[in-house]
Amino acid sequence: MRANYKMQRLYVPQDLAPDAAFEASPEQSHYLTHVLRLSEGAEILIFNGRDGEWLARIEARTKKSVRLRAVEQTRPQPAHPDLVYSFAPLKQGRLDYLVQKAVEMGAGVLQPVVTQHTQIAKPGIERLRANVVEAAEQCGILALPEVREAQKFSALLAGWDKERRLIFCDESAQTNNPLAMLQAIPERKLALIIGPEGGFSEDERRQLYALPFVTAIPLGPRILRADTAAVAALALVQATIGDW
Questions:
Q1: For position 174, what pLDDT does the model report?
Q2: What region does 61 belong to: left with phi over 0, alpha with psi -120 to 50, or beta?
Q3: Residues in the chain where the model's pLDDT stays below 70
């Protein structure tokens, strides 16, 4: 069932069920009353990443608070996406974009990884989670990706689930066509890893090529920025062997 894009959507942490009532957060209350200028009786859509999407009604409002009541479920909760998306953190504005697009394109886990050329060693996890919620609200997504703490590259590989195929984009690949490589992957537990602006180091590339659960793919004849490469790679994987 597709999302209703004509109605305002909000993420809420509370459990959702028929007739469940609760106060919106102060930020959401301000948004509903002073930005959207919604009155008592107005309806919006709410979700919590667990209980599906619900039609909710503004039951009461003041200048500083809004009380919402769940009326009926409009969409059931879908299965959580299984795609693990690992990426080297970028500078803030481009990192925000990268995370939002990963949410839109069906990532189930967001795993920051610190490589030798990573620019930002410790990204703000709460900001990443806020970007996840914002993207989900805007795009009708109900299953929120898990945001994990950053790991060093070597630790990520050492603790890797060997039954999950790890796909990485190798800018030095000898071919420009990734389709045959992706179509040859037998596993359906998938992960994608994107390097930083300077790409993976030679040592990191050697480590990746030495692992039996890793597949290297090219991204065409052009040099892509890291955030562009992230979107291109997600689109290729999802369209070829993912859930599209």
A1: 64
A2: beta
A3: 1-2, 172-175
Domain ranges of the chain: 9-75, 84-240
CA 167 vs CA 96, 128, 148, 195: distances in Å: 22, 23, 19, 11
pTM of the entire structure?
A: 0.88
Report the CATH number of the 9-75 domain: 2.40.240.20
Q: Tokens in use for 111? A: 């795993």
Domain range 84-240, CATH architecture: 3-Layer(aba) Sandwich (3.40)
Rg for the chain (alpha carbons), in Å? Answer: 20
Cα distance between residue 192 and residue 84, in whole Å:
6
What pLDDT score does 6 carry? 81
Task: Output the pLDDT for position 172.
Answer: 67
- The per-residue DSSP string of 136-174 comes to HHHHT--SPPEEPPPEEHHHHHHT--TTSEEEEE-TT-S
Angle between helix 226-240 and 92-104 (nearest 10): 10
The amino acid sitting at 230 is: A
* 32 DSSP assignment: I
